[in-house]
Amino acid sequence: MPYLSIRTSANMDGAQRLALQQELGELIAVIPGKSANNCMIDIKSGCDLYMRGGEILGAFVDLRLFTAAPDAAKNDFFAKLCVLLKEQLGVEQENIYCNMLELTQWCSGGALKKA
């Protein structure tokens, strides 16, 4: 199960968050074995984000994956994610930062899973 968390200073209403999570669910499928059905998405909008000495319109993305994914797929995901955040939120690419963790252990449904 991927976990995808986005914090953005863009203000979003419920309909905008729903539209974004649907797009993100489709986008996660560029990573082999991942889909909207097994992706947990957390969107926090209206956050105070600061860079370069002031407040910015920006986004921070945290992606967590159980097991490693191919580099080409991760690159494709993050490139398309930046386009999506620009289109949906107006956030410029230079104000989008992402990190990713690839984990060898994961717990879901009350059971520990190991890679």
Highlighted features:
115 residues; alpha/beta; four-stranded mixed sheet; two-stranded antiparallel sheet; 29% helix; globular
Structure, described:
- The protein has two helices and eight strands; from the N terminus they run E-H-E-E-E-E-H-E-E-E.
- With about 120 residues, the protein is α/β, with parallel strands linked by helices.
- The protein has a four-stranded mixed beta sheet, covered by helices on one side.
- A hairpin with a 2-residue loop joins strand 3 (about 50) and strand 4 (about 55).
- Helix 1 (about 15-25) runs antiparallel to helix 2.
- It is globular and about 40 Å long.
The gist of it:
By secondary structure, the protein is α/β, with parallel strands linked by helices. The chain is built from two helices and eight strands, in the order βαββββαβββ.
Helix fraction, binned, reads 25-40%
Shape call: globular
Strand order of the largest sheet: 2-1-5-6
Tell me the span between the first and last alpha carbons: 13 Å
Give me the count of strands.
8
Radius of gyration: 15 Å
H-E string: EHEEEEHEEE
Mean pLDDT over all positions: 97
* Secondary structural class: alpha/beta
Strand content is 25-35%
Query: Unreliable stretches, pLDDT < 50, 5 or more residues?
Result: none
Helix count, per DSSP? 2
Q: What characterizes the major β-sheet? A: 4 strands, mixed
